[in-house]
Design goal:
Blueprint (H helix, E strand, L loop, with lengths): L14 H8 L4 E2 L1 E6 L5 E6 L2 E6 L2 E8 L5 H7 L1 E6 L5 H8 L12 E2 L6 E2 L5 E13 L2 E13 L7 E3 L2 E3 L5 H10 L1
Antiparallel strand pairs: 1-11, 2-3, 2-6, 4-5, 5-10, 6-9, 7-8, 9-10, 11-12
């Protein structure tokens, strides 16, 4: 069930204050990919991606309505969440740049049996079917149902924190604790 659209109310916090606060929230860096009605590959860098439910499995992707990918995502009803690894910073920057030829590097392949572009060396791949769309401010929240999940076993992750890319580093103490738990 989709929640009815609520008109925006006056913000208590200013936009700048809100952006500054959100910069302190570390988020995974992903590239969301799809194909438009003409078969052209579309994609963008997103940090507003999270798991929502285990039963049924659902993932949430936030996309601004003004994005060139918004309409193709809704029309196609399918997308891939490519969770980026520590080596993908330049790729994330390219997919975040307006007017860039995002697929120019040739890193992406077509998902077997279909057209959806995916990054073969991504840390995690989620091929999703659009399950619902929830309007939220200037964005739509896309709920995707993962049809296929692939993991590379790569331990490196790329995160967005304080308006730049970072790679989390485990201390030797954390590695020891992780070994004991496992």
């Amino acid at each position: 069930m989709t929640v009815p659209y609520m008109p925006p109310r006056a913000a208590v916090a200013g936009a700048r204050e809100f952006r500054d606060a959100m910069a302190l929230l570390a988020a995974p860096v992903t590239i969301i990919t799809t194909v438009d009605g003409d078969g052209c590959r579309r994609g963008f860098t997103a940090s507003s991606v999270t798991s929502v439910s285990l039963d049924p499995p659902l993932v949430l992707v936030g996309v601004t309505r003004g994005s060139s990918c918004h309409r193709p995502l809704l029309a196609r009803g399918e997308f891939v969440v490519n969770v980026l690894g520590d080596r993908h910073g330049p790729l994330a920057r390219r997919f975040a740049a307006a007017g860039a030829d995002r697929f120019a590097g040739g890193e992406f392949e077509s998902w077997p049996g279909g057209e959806l572009p995916y990054l073969p060396d991504a840390s995690v791949l989620l091929r999703c079917t659009l399950a619902d769309v929830v309007p939220a401010g200037d964005h739509d929240l896309l709920l995707g149902s993962p049809d296929e999940v692939r993991t590379s076993g790569s331990s490196g992750a790329l995160v967005w924190y304080q308006r730049s890319f970072h790679v989390p580093v485990q201390t030797s103490q954390e590695r020891t604790a992780a070994i004991r738990v496992a």
